[in-house]
Amino acid sequence: MKTKLLTLVLLAFICVPGFSQTFKLGLKGGANFGKISGKAFTDEYKLGYHIGAFATVGFTSKFAIQPEVLFSQITADGTTSNSLSNAYDFNNIKKAKFNSLIIPIMLNYNVNPFITLQVGPQFGVVIDKNKTLFQNGEEAFKSGDFSLAGGIQLNLLKFRIYGRYVGGLTNMDNIGNEDTWKASSIQLGLGFTIL
Predict the structure, then answer these.
(1) Any residues with CB less than 8 A from the CB of 2 and at least 6 apart, and which?
(2) DSSP states along 109-126
């Protein structure tokens, strides 16, 4: 699954520019304010980061597709509820830290040359789970997720300033059906086109 997804993204970066009216390639990075919803976690956003590359493939003056490949980190604090611990058969939840490869595929609508609205799906693959999350070391989280993202981007010459909300649709709980764990984040960042 991971190999197929990466192959599709690479093909999009290589093949799609030939059919487009405009093509731009760039680097981007910034802050993630992420959380995991569910009874097992505190309901507050924690600071993380994201960094990676994007391509913008324009088909008309108003519409473009923007695939991205980003390394992203989300951190969440757990609760120490005894009833929850008994339900999941672990002693306590500490701090969850996820390093993921995320692949948003955004549809861009250019309101004008300076403002772009974005919406689209995001696929994520967890590449480094904190295995000491639980005292008994169980693999508590699924290794991938699917989200929807939307936001706004300001275009200033070669610079891109953006804000985006990402809402998880996948239940990441890999232990049982006692609770639903969904990741969400607010991304703020800066991009720079190099081509």
Answers:
(1) 125, 144
(2) EESSSSEEEEEEEEEEEE
Assessment of whether the complete model's pTM goes beyond 0.70: yes
For residues 72 and 132, the answer to whether their CB atoms sit within 8 Å is no
Distances (CA, A) of 108 to 13, 22, 65, 113: 16, 13, 6, 12
**pLDDT score, position 35:** 86
What residues contact 52, with CB distance under 8 A and at least 6 apart? 27, 28, 29, 68, 69, 70, 71
DSSP state of 134: B
Q: Two tokens at 26?
A: 């760039």
d(CA 144, CA 142): 6
| Residue, of 94 and 109, whose pLDDT is higher | 109
Q: Give the C-alpha separation, 132 to 120, whole Å.
A: 33
